[in-house]
């Protein structure tokens, strides 16, 4: 069976690492990897392939730094050409980026089976590019691999039971990755020592979502709150290039420690040693939970609602006082993280077994 997987952005490399590792156990599956090039800095892309030993992409389209229409249009055109040449049985996409939707759409128009990993998530905020990408990708997918109970329910509520597709609860590949790489990251990463953070309390922070970076009042308010919190505790902010550019352009001053984006192993070590996570990332909200750390989310809603319901995550939005208050409250809470929300670390196995059983039915092998 020939399977094309499409990746483009940082979180997708981590998911792809687990999927490629699983595929390697099945000689009957040939994986062709397309990197759209959406993320391209060394520490936003290559470092993940090197650290996690992801097979090098067969194609790198080098499509990045454009408006959404241009980026998606170019991706669609290039992925279609590759699909016409490779003639795969299935195409797999991950998450909710522009690379996800471009891959899914190119395949669907050619009647190639589409597999969506991380299906069914919803923030219900259609102003977010991620929500648009998720909803549309789900609608044209043939196999929808849902990470959580809630994501399956979301699809039911949207009538997916009446569509010709297969919805499967597989668990979350990010949980697989966190468990799989935690020991090796402890051995390989030097970040705690490099940043002289041994035995220090610090808060781990990330900011990159368009809804925050592209709205100056939201971004200013977040930075102002963080500058205030930094008077009480060290903050470490590995900063996405998108946010760097916007802060510089608007002359917004950060009064705590900003570092370049880090690789996944360093990120795991920072997560393990931090006291709390402050973020607008989707992935980081879950990783805070995987490493038993409370999280304050700098957004008005989240697609990982189970974390909020269980009290592991607080939605602070972007209002300065609300962020400071949420941080102070979450520092004090005592949480029992011994809850299974994201599966048993076997999501990649479940996904591949589902594809094989479907392809058996379709007699593709
Ligand atoms: C994208 C995803 C977002 C995801 C994030 C993961 C979309 C619509 N958004 O957002 O859902 O959370 O990836 O990190 O697909 N840039 C660099 N170097 C890089 C990568 C980006 O300088 O390696 C710059 C680009 O030139 C651009 C900006 O960052 O100016 C935004 O990049 P883009 O890929 O469009 O979106 P992200 O914000 O990364
Ligand atoms: N990540 C990383 N280094 C960083 C920032 C993030 O390795 O400097 C990892 C993070 O651990 C998570 C993934 O990248 O697994 C999430 O990426 P991001 O926050 O960019 O995207 P989102 O999850 O919001 O789509």
Q: What this model shows, in words?
A:
With 365 residues, the protein is of the alpha/beta class. The chain has two domains: 2-171 and 346-362, 3-Layer(aba) Sandwich (Rossmann fold), CATH 3.40.50; 180-332, Glycogen Phosphorylase B (Rossmann fold, 3-Layer(aba) Sandwich). The protein contains 16 helices and 13 strands. A seven-stranded parallel beta sheet has the order 3-2-1-4-5-6-7, sandwiched between helices. Strands 10-9-8-11-12-13 form a six-stranded parallel beta sheet, with helices on both faces. Helix 5 (129-139) links the parallel strand 5 and strand 6 (143-146). Uridine-diphosphate-N-acetylglucosamine binds at residues 9-11, 38-41, 44, 64-65, 96-98, 129-130, 208, 241-242.
Summed up, what is this model?
With about 375 residues, the chain is α/β, with parallel strands linked by helices.
Essential attributes:
2 domains, globular, six-stranded parallel β-sheet, 365 residues, seven-stranded parallel β-sheet, binds uridine-5'-diphosphate, alpha/beta, Rossmann fold, single chain, 16 helices, binds uridine-diphosphate-N-acetylglucosamine
